[in-house]
């Protein structure tokens, strides 16, 4: 039985170490996503400004479609980050 436990620990310990490394890297990944989200927000703002300045017609419609697509992507990313932060808070404060 002791031999079985020893072999189990030899298998489990590297998995636990790998899990800890992954968990430690998560805040860095969230920071990277947050930076990308900010860049996307600036891009969206630029697209919205271009739509406002564009002449009526096809150009305006195409720009509006792109701006709508960018907004959708932005809000999706923002939702993921918010959900992740909520999970972190629940784990932190129980």
Automatic annotation (TrEMBL):
Keywords: Nucleotide-binding, Plant defense, Repeat
Record bears the keyword Repeat: yes
A GO MF term: nucleotide binding
Repeat listed as a keyword: yes
Residues in Disease resistance N-terminal domain copies: 13-91
GO biological process entries: defense response
Superkingdom to which the source organism belongs: Eukaryota
Annotated InterPro entries: Rx_N
Stated name of the protein: Disease resistance protein
Source organism: Trifolium medium
Organism phylogeny: Eukaryota, Viridiplantae, Streptophyta, Embryophyta, Tracheophyta
